C-alpha cells in the first residue's frame, strides 16, 4: 500500500498550480481534528476507567496513541510530508486500538473503542492524500475492525462504519476534483501568459521589422533596377513574417509613431523610473509629440490641465495613437499622393479618458478591417484595439466613404489615478 499510496502522491502533486493549494486548508483541519479527537478519546477513557476489565492495557495504548499523534503532526501538515509509509502505520495504529478494545473491556461495559472517533483521522488522511478509491479501502479496513470488535454487528456499529466510509469517500472525491481544477487553472494561466508574451512580441515585430520591410519594398519598387529586386525580397520576407505571426495566433501591432522624441519615450524609456510604481506621465505631452510637436503635420487639441496617467498606461495609449496615425499616413492619402490631414482630440472626463484620431481621407471600405486581419495585417486589430483591451479600454472605428475615418479610443479611469484640476 505504501508504494501505491506514494504513486497517488506523485499523481496528486505532479502539476501544482501557482499560489496556495486548494487542499492545504484540509490538511490544517485534519491536524486540528487529530488533536481534538485524541483529547476526546482520553476523556472517554478517563470517565469509564472503572468499567474496564483491564484498564492498564487501555492506559498503555492511549499513551502510545498520544505520543504517536503529537510526534506525527508534521506528517499531516501537507501532501509532501504525508507519505505512504506514514499512512500505513497510521491505519495500523487505528486498527490495533479498535481490536485491543475488546481485550481492555472484555465485558463490553464501555461503548466506544479505545481510540474512539480518532480512527476517522487516518482514513481522512488517506482520502486527502490518495483520493476516494484509497479512502474506500481505508474506511473498509477500519470498518471491518469495528465490526469484528463489536461481534454482534449492531445497528450503531454499522451506522458508524457507514458514516466513516461515506465521509471519507466524499472527501477523497472532492480532493480529486479540486486537484484536477487546480491543474486546469495552472495550464490556463501558463497559456494566457504565453499568449500575452507572443502578443507583445508580435506587436514589437509589427512596429519595427514589418514596417521596415514594407518601406524597403515600396522604395525599392519606386527606384527600380537592383533596388526593385531588393524590394521584392523584402516583400517576400514581410509576407512570410506576417504569416508566421498570424499562424501563431499572435495579434500583431501597428506602426511606429512619428518623431524621434516620441520613439524614445515609447521604447528606450518604456520602463522609466523603475521601482517607482507611482511614476506618471502627462498624456498631453506624448500626444503632442505624436502629432509632431506644435505646428506639426497633425493637429492636436486637448484640455488645458495635465492629464497624468501611470507611465506604462500613458505610453500604451500613445502607442495606439501612433499606430492610428501610421494607418493615416499609409492608407488615407489622396489619389495624387498628397497626405491626408489628421487631428488628435484628447478629452479628460471624470469617468474615462477619450482620445480621438480623425482624418479626411477616403475612409475605410466596409469589411476592410476584417479582411486585413485575415491577411495577417494586424495593425488595427491589436496594435490599436489590442493595446486598449490590455488596459481595460476599447477602440472603435467610424468611417464614412469619402469623408474620412475616426478612431475613438476610450480608457476608463481607475481608482488611484489623479485627476488634475479637479
UniProtKB/TrEMBL annotation:
Residues in Histidine kinase/HSP90-like ATPase domain copies: 318-414
GO (cellular component) term, any one: membrane
Keyword Membrane: yes
MF term (GO), any: phosphorelay sensor kinase activity
Pfam families: DUF5931, HATPase_c, HisKA_3
Record domain DUF5931: where: 19-186
Identification of the protein by name: Two-component system sensor kinase
Residues covered by the Signal transduction histidine kinase subgroup 3 dimerisation and phosphoacceptor domain: 197-227
Origin superkingdom: Bacteria
Keyword terms: Kinase, Membrane, Transferase, Transmembrane, Transmembrane helix, Two-component regulatory system
Family annotation (InterPro entries): DUF5931, HATPase_C_sf, HATPase_dom, Sensor_HK_TwoCompSys, Sig_transdc_His_kin_sub3_dim/P
Annotated transmembrane regions: 31-49, 56-74
Species annotation: Streptomyces xiamenensis
Amino acid at each position: 500500500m505504501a508504494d501505491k499510496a506514494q504513486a497517488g502522491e506523485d499523481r496528486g502533486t505532479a502539476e501544482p498550480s501557482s499560489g496556495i493549494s486548494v487542499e492545504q486548508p484540509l490538511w490544517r483541519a485534519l491536524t486540528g481534528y487529530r488533536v481534538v479527537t485524541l483529547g476526546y478519546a482520553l476523556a472517554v477513557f478517563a470517565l469509564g476507567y472503572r468499567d474496564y476489565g483491564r484498564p492498564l492495557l487501555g492506559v498503555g495504548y492511549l499513551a502510545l496513541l498520544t505520543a504517536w499523534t503529537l510526534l506525527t503532526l508534521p506528517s499531516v501538515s501537507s501532501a509532501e510530508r504525508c507519505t505512504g509509509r506514514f499512512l500505513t502505520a497510521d491505519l495500523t495504529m487505528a486498527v490495533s486500538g479498535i481490536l485491543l478494545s475488546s481485550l481492555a473491556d472484555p465485558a463490553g461495559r464501555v461503548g466506544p473503542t479505545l481510540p474512539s472517533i480518532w480512527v476517522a483521522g487516518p482514513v481522512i488522511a488517506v482520502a486527502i492524500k490518495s483520493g476516494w478509491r484509497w479512502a474506500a479501502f481505508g474506511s473498509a479496513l477500519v470498518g471491518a475492525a469495528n465490526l469484528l470488535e463489536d461481534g454482534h454487528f449492531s445497528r450503531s456499529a454499522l451506522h458508524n462504519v457507514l458514516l466513516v466510509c461515506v465521509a471519507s469517500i466524499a472527501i477523497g472525491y472532492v480532493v480529486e476534483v479540486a486537484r484536477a481544477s487546480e491543474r486546469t487553472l495552472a495550464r490556463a494561466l501558463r497559456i494566457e501568459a504565453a499568449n500575452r508574451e507572443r502578443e507583445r512580441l508580435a506587436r514589437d515585430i509589427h512596429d519595427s521589422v514589418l514596417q521596415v520591410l514594407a518601406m524597403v519594398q515600396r522604395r525599392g519598387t519606386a527606384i527600380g533596377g537592383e533596388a526593385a529586386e531588393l524590394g521584392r525580397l523584402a516583400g517576400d520576407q514581410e509576407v512570410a513574417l506576417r504569416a508566421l505571426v498570424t499562424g501563431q495566433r499572435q495579434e500583431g501591432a501597428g506602426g511606429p509613431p512619428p518623431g524621434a522624441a516620441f520613439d524614445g519615450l515609447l521604447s528606450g524609456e518604456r520602463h522609466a523610473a523603475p521601482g517607482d510604481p507611482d511614476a506618471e506621465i502627462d498624456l498631453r505631452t506624448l500626444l503632442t509629440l505624436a502629432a509632431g510637436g506644435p505646428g506639426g503635420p497633425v493637429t492636436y487639441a486637448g484640455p488645458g490641465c495635465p492629464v497624468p496617467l501611470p507611465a506604462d498606461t500613458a505610453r500604451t495609449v500613445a502607442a495606439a495613437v501612433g499606430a492610428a496615425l501610421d494607418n493615416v499616413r499609409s492608407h488615407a492619402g489622396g489619389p495624387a499622393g498628397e497626405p491626408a490631414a489628421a487631428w488628435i482630440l484628447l478629452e479628460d472626463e471624470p469617468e474615462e479618458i477619450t482620445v480621438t484620431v480623425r482624418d479626411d481621407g477616403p475612409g475605410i471600405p466596409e469589411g476592410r478591417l476584417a479582411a486585413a486581419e485575415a491577411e495577417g495585417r494586424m495593425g488595427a486589430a491589436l496594435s490599436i484595439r489590442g493595446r486598449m483591451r490590455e488596459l481595460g479600454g476599447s477602440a472603435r472605428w467610424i468611417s464614412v466613404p469619402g469623408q474620412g475615418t475616426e478612431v475613438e479610443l476610450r480608457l476608463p479611469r481607475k481608482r488611484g489615478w489623479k485627476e488634475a484640476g479637479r
